[in-house]
Amino acid sequence: MEIIFYSTTNENNVVYKTLTDELRFENCTLKEPTDIINPTVIINSNINFKKYNYCYIPEFNRYYFITDIVSRINNMWILKCKVDVLMSFKEFFINLNVIVNRGEKNINSY
User: Measured between alpha carbons, how far is 14 from 26 in angstroms, rounded to an integer?
Assistant: First the structure.
């Protein structure tokens, strides 16, 4: 399974995040049992994954926050992830036609 790792400094509630330090890695395995919302990934590599805090899993078509990174013996890494709904479904949210009844700072009288 391929995973693309990134670093980001954006807050979690930002829709379009600035992604840097891209690293494509193909030898990733999902820990069983796991799910699409909060997957746990096992990687065998000598790369230090602690500098990455964000990833994209093309197979799931979703972006994820990396919530925990555990280093095990023999270059094994366990990464716990949590789906970023805003970034994963940004095109759906941006193209949505809605009438806003209340805003953060003022009330719409429409």
Answer: 28
What is the residue-level pLDDT of the chain in tens, covering all 110 positions?
Answer: 999 999 999 999 998 899 999 999 998 889 888 899 999 999 999 988 889 999 999 999 999 999 999 988 888 999 999 999 999 999 888 888 877 776 666 665 55
* CA gap 60, 2 in Å, rounded: 10
Whether residue 58 is preceded by a cis peptide bond, meaning omega within 30 degrees of 0, is no
Residue 3 burial (CB count, 10 A): 24
Of 45, 54, 50, the C-alpha closest to 74 is 45
Alpha-carbon Rg of the chain, whole angstroms? 17
What is each CA distance from 58 to 37, 46, 100, in whole angstroms? Answer: 14, 23, 33
Supply the pTM of this predicted model. Answer: 0.85
Cα separation, 44 vs 73, whole angstroms:
10
Q: For 31, left (φ over 0), alpha (ψ -120 to 50), or beta?
A: beta
